[in-house]
Amino acid sequence: MQEPMTYRDRLRVDVLALARRLLEAEGLDALQARRIASEAGCSVGSLYNVFGDIDGLVVELNAATLDRLGRSLSDAFQAEVAAGLHDQLLALALGYMRFAAENRHAWEAVFKYQRTSVVPEPESYLEAQEQLLALIAHSTAEFITAAPERELAARALFAAVHGVVALAMDNRIGGKLRADLERHVRFLVGVLARGIEASGGR
Amino acid sequence: MQEPMTYRDRLRVDVLALARRLLEAEGLDALQARRIASEAGCSVGSLYNVFGDIDGLVVELNAATLDRLGRSLSDAFQAEVAAGLHDQLLALALGYMRFAAENRHAWEAVFKYQRTSVVPEPESYLEAQEQLLALIAHSTAEFITAAPERELAARALFAAVHGVVALAMDNRIGGKLRADLERHVRFLVGVLARGIEASGGR
User: Fold this and answer.
1) CB-closest option in A159, A188, A194 to B164
2) Are A155 and B170 an interchain contact pair (Cβ–Cβ within 8 Å)?
3) For residue A99, is it left (φ>0), alpha (ψ between -120 and 50) or beta?
4) Taking an 8 Å Cβ-Cβ cutoff, which residues of chain A contact chain B?
5) For residues A177 and A12, what is the distance between their CA atoms, to the nearest angstrom?
6) Going by fewer Cβ within 10 Å, which terminus of chain B is more open, N or C?
7) Which of A111, A160, A194 sits opposite B164 (nearest CB)?
8) Max intra-chain CA distance, chain B
9) Whole-prediction pTM value?
10) Distances from the Cα of B127 to the Cα of A109, B63, B70, B161, angstroms
11) Which residues contact residue B134 at a Cβ distance below 8 angstroms, ignoring those fewer than 6 apart?
12) Distance between CA A84 and CA B186 in Å, rounded?
């Protein structure tokens, strides 16, 4: 028989659900301790008691976002598991692009939130990052056989695709990028896949 | 004989120099109208009279940063003008990385400043972006012969390198990136150059 939830556990679940709705509807600026406490019907003190501070809450939200992103990309990867490097990388990159577009505020919070506390990120957060990078590394395994180089490659490939998506979402470099985003992603993945294939054996 | 500067012209020059020092020393948050006016010895009204609003001031600072970046990358490119695609792209990418590291706050302001006004960016700003992209496009001209594809390629390549640099500067995806930044840039440029060379004729 399941233990009944304590007040603290229930508050955590309720606040996370509320904060996620606020984040999705209004963006990071909506995540103010006083407003969340007021809407959750608890005191700011209770909120801090559960999450430490607002950083703690945002880090939990970001960990949940990374987890959803990881599952979404894992599904995209599974659909191309029998395909070659190009199609696998493209599935991951387009999956990343779509997740960013459909979860704009939550996705931005992962990359834009400036933490004020010095507490390290929780293990689950780092694990979600590693799982994401592992999918990319897996795609390249046939061509990049040394594990350390494969790990470096996965981080660089992630950052490259992230850069194309993030600049387009911000629409900062010229005004044309957002409309052209999918073409940019397809071009970049094409070049990257050919470059990795051509490096096989070097 | 040169016309003497008007009060308005002198204020513009003084405020831009002051704002640039504030930005470099303390970052974007230091650019508050009241503080700048106080340190420049003018009223907030005079400040707005010259720059429109704080957005106008930041856009002028950002245009100056893009101009300095462009000149720095142009020098890097000239040094490799007789080299091949890989060495040219690497010079541009490493030049970009160094500029970002050495002008951290000014560089971040270009990409992170959230404008509040709807006035379009000035022509000089867009021109500085185009010049930067033209350097990249020039590197690839031997392999990507169609101009529209070359322009798309330049934007995608810029965004890819920017992504690697920006994530490392933020140090967001894992804790290892900052130290590994130059290795990531070299890996990425290596893959991109091979990929572009391999695509010649396709």
Assistant:
1) A159
2) no
3) alpha
4) 110-111, 126, 129-130, 133, 149, 152-153, 155-164, 166-168, 170, 172-174, 176-177, 180, 183-185, 187-188, 190-199
5) 40
6) N
7) A160
8) 62
9) 0.88
10) 31, 9, 10, 20
11) B154
12) 25
Which residues in chain B are contacts of A173 at CB distance < 8 A? 129, 133, 155, 158-159, 162
Tell me the chain A residues in contact with residue B194 when contact means C-beta distances shorter than 8 Å. 194-195, 198-199
CB A64 within 8 A of CB A20: yes
Q: Could you identify the residue written with the tokens 């500085």?
A: B128
At residue B104, φ and ψ (nearest 5 deg) are: -45, -55
CA distances B166 to A110, B33, B41, B111, Å, are: 14, 28, 36, 9
For residue range B126-151, what is the model confidence (pLDDT) as tens digits?
A: 788 888 899 999 999 999 999 999 99
pLDDT per residue as tens digits for the range A34-92: 999 999 999 999 999 999 888 889 989 998 999 999 999 999 999 998 999 999 999 99
Shortest alpha-carbon distance between residue B47 and chain A (Å): 26
Please report the ipTM that was assigned to this predicted complex: 0.86
